Fold this protein.
Amino acid sequence: MGRGESRAADLAAVAMGGCLGTAVRYLLEESVAPLGGWFPVATLIANLCGAFVLGLFLEYLLLSGEDVGGRRAARLFFGTGACGSFTTYGTMVSEGLGIAGAGSIPLAAFYLGLTLCAGAALAALGMRCAKILAARKGGAR
């Protein structure tokens, strides 16, 4: 496959994954009502779940071999496309600023801090879980 064909396939993988992640995010937004009508629960859930899943998935791929062929396609489809469109740090910041603008700066700081700190911890936990899974499978390098 030539470089142009490879780029087109990569772009298609990201686009298809993006459609999936966006659809799942929409369903989450529709099924989770904001707490008290204003706290962005769905965005918090999406970002925290996404951080864990992305850490788990990308670390497992890394441990399983080079970023070529099927692993590269999976990374682009699921990691970049699906997880990238499911999570949304831009919306998180916008919602945090909205909470602050409504006069609740401590709650905005809590929401933003929780998302960032818990997201980092969950990504690290996902990576650790991937290492355990890879070791059990015998795929850890």
Observations:
- The chain has a mean pLDDT of 92.
- The first helix runs from residue 3 to 31.
- Residues 44 and 115 are 6 Å apart (CA to CA).
- The helical segments are 3-31, 41-64, 69-86, 89-101, 105-137.
